[in-house]
Amino acid sequence: MTWGTGFKRHTRNNAGFTLLEVLVSLTIMAMITAVAFAGLSIGIDSWHRGSRKIDELDRRFTIERVIQRQIALTDHVFRGDRDQLEFSTTYSLANGSGDPVWVKYVLDGNELLYFETPFTQYVESQTTPALKQTFAAVSMNGFRYLYILPSKEYDWFYETTKDNPVAVRVDLSGDVLTIPLVNVEKQ
């Protein structure tokens, strides 16, 4: 009698995976995917923060450039104190260089308010500007004005006097701008 002919030998089939192997591999893939999405989320957050910082720097640079151009090209009318600055200039925010305009900057908390009126329409008691612009999220410590003292020394003041200053100092978000007045006669 032959015993081995009717029985099949039971061996493992190597053509597939066991349920345990599939579950382990799915768990590992889920962990890898979770780490990848966490990294992607951190990268996107960094991108947004960088974009906001670039926008803030662009806005501050634009404000600085306009203030520098306008103050440098101011005409003979100039007055101000720590929180506001008024003058006539030939540089308009709306039109660039050209006809004279009356410009007024006012510090209001963390906002810098800008008013512009064509000089031909400017009346001192009238407060309806042709252009009004608000620059938000600007930290400023006010305006200061450089004068030549009778002793021929220079000193900074928080208010203008009857004479025009030699320069204006603007502390804008930590950057100090010292802008000489080009068109103003020196004392």
Can you characterise this structure?
This protein is α+β, with helices and mostly antiparallel strands and 187 residues long. The protein has a domain at 59-138. The protein has one helix and nine strands; from the N terminus they run αβββββββββ. The protein is elongated and about 115 Å long. The N and C termini lie far apart (132 Å).
What is this entry, summarized?
The chain has 187 residues and is an alpha+beta fold. It has 1 helix and 9 strands. The chain is elongated, with a radius of gyration of 35 Å.
Structural class: alpha+beta
Q: How would a textbook summarize the main sheet? A: 5 strands, antiparallel
Number of helices: 1
Alpha carbon gyration radius: 35 Å
Q: Going across the major beta sheet, what is the strand order? A: 1-2-3-4-5
Estimate percent helicity. 25-40%
**Strand portion:** 35-45%
Number of strands: 9
- H and E string: HEEEEEEEEE
Low-confidence stretches: none
**Average pLDDT for all residues:** 82
Gap between N and C termini: 132 Å
Shape: elongated
